[in-house]
Amino acid sequence: MKIPTAGRNPRDFSTGIGRSPKGFSNEFKLPNREQAIALLEKYRILPNILAHSMQVNRVAVFLAKKLVKSGEKVNLNVVDMASLLHDIAKSRTIIEKRRDIHWVEAEEILTEEGYPELGHICKMHGFSELNKSKNPSWEAKIVCYADSRVMHDRIVTLQERMEDLKKRYKLGDDEPHLVIWKNLETEIFSKLKIKPNDVKKLVENEQS
Ligand SMILES: [Fe+2]
Description:
Layout: E1 17-19, E2 27-29, H1 33-42, H2 47-69, H3 76-85, H4 90-95, H5 102-112, H6 116-123, H7 138-148, E3 150-151, E4 154-155, H8 158-169, H9 176-190, H10 199-207
Antiparallel strand pairs: 1-2, 3-4
Fe (ii) ion binds at residues 52, 56, 86-87, 147.
């Protein structure tokens, strides 16, 4: 399967070793982009999930770079790899028609593959997982929020994505995961000069 490279050098950001987000040891192992792509293929990523993951990757890396520019400590390598791999288990649960806890399985897969810390960050994009952590890292928060801005493979507003999720899963406005998303949007954009609605245009401009 041919994997697109988000219009940039596939080796961008991926050095193999990540500096530690808060709460982790000083250094932990990260795959490079080729290794990440091999993992996605190994776990039978479906084309639509791949397209979604690539778009989440673009949004996440875009926001991470903006946050770094505004003085926040964010590890771009970690954001790059976690956003690319966050749905690594989703295709498997769809193909095997199993209960969808793909975020938990993502952690299991990446731990087995030798990337436990990265797996933990991927797990935190799942339903309400961020609420279980006292002090989640920027990397986990960025990946979770970027996922909220991509519906299938399209960058949308948070509102649009929430409406879709509410319909699909019959959720109320007070669903904790939706509250997490809203709070993340407030927190992230309180640090930036751009507005949430600027993201789509700016990310798409980067690609052209
Ligand atoms: Fe996702």
